[in-house]
Amino acid sequence: MVKRNRMDVDAFFSEVDQTQEVYNLRERIKTLEEKLDQTINREQELVSEIDQLRLRPINEYESQQLQDQIETLREHLKENKGTIQYPVNKITPNLNQPRKTFTEEVEAMALSLQREGQLDPVILFEDGMLFDGECRYRAAQILGWGNLEAVFTSKLEDAKTLRRRAYLTSLHRRGLNALDKAETLVAIACDEIPELPPEEVPRIINRVLTRLKRRKQSLGQKLHLQLQEQQQIALAQLELEIVEAQVIALFLELQEHPASLNRNIFPSLNLSLDLKNAVREQALGCAQALILNRISAKELGISEKSALKLRGQGIQKVITENLSTTATQQWVVQQKTRYFKTSILPIQDKKIKRILTIAHDIDLSNTNISVEQRQELKQVLETLLQQLQE
Q1: Is 70 exposed, middle or buried (0-12, 13-18, 19+ CB in 10 A)?
Q2: Which domain holds residue 280?
Q3: Do residues 153 and 279 both lie within one domain?
Q4: Is residue 112 assigned to a domain?
Q5: What mean pLDDT comes out for the span 235-252?
Q6: 237 and 104, same structural domain?
Q7: Per the count of CB atoms within 10 A, which of 31, 250, 306, 333 is most buried?
Q8: pTM, two decimal places
Q9: What residues form DSSP beta bridges with 152?
Q10: Residue 52 parent element (H or E)
Q11: At a CB cut-off of 8 Å and minimum separation 6, what does 178 contact?
């Protein structure tokens, strides 16, 4: 009979204790992982819900719902990830942010930060790029703050998608001025069609509309509000070139009618640099800026420096007196009338000087003049004398 070895009870129970400890530890880790997964899933849920609202037109109620979701995401991130004091100089603006004009909002935010401090943290992606809080970031720069309270979320989208979604967010939440809107739409078009030069985008729209008008065809007033399938059917009937169809289809998908863009939005791309700066930094209206843009050196026959100075006077007048488009138009007409009057005189003086020069150079002493020619010359001179006396 084989003799059984005696069990080492201490060793046995020691092993059991270690196994139990490992088991408990694993269970704890599993529980923490499940909780973390729930936290991440909730964060992704919120981000997804926000994106869904951003991807389509929204009414006033849905706009408030979007704001509420962003606040919910902010609170979720604060609770589960905490906030940190993040250096302002390390925050990266979203280059795909369509809005470039924040003057009034930033001034109000700077005043609020001074009086009440930062009430809500900015939301940043993990690389420090802004997801929400542009005005707080800009106001902090103006105030010279070193840090801003921040929470972080994951960046899930590529740059092209971010630009498109940022555009739709700004469009439905607050709207964009014509200049910001035009530049963003051109950028989105170039994202979708990489080989397309930016300057070609508005040209394509204008070219297509001109051709359709000549053919007595139309895109239809509400094509941008129809389903994508209906839009594609309508475009297929117009016999457009490939790139033309791509650009038109893209803008229709973004719920923008090409005719409205051509008439009201894309002309702002032709504004002079000083007027673009005034729109963004001095809250000059785009409609007024387009009227002031008619004051050009070429049109008035003056130097670029003089035209720039005159536009500057117009900018200040429009802003300080809050001129309407009609009043701005009247002011521009007055300036053109004044400059045209002063520019006519030098032309007349040059003409008279040329006539005098010719007259002084005439030598009739060695010229054989017939009686008829003499009489005709006399009549011309008498007519000139009579005009001078009037």
Answers
A1: buried
A2: 274-342
A3: no
A4: yes
A5: 92
A6: no
A7: 250
A8: 0.54
A9: 124
A10: helix 9-54
A11: 264, 265, 267, 268, 286, 287
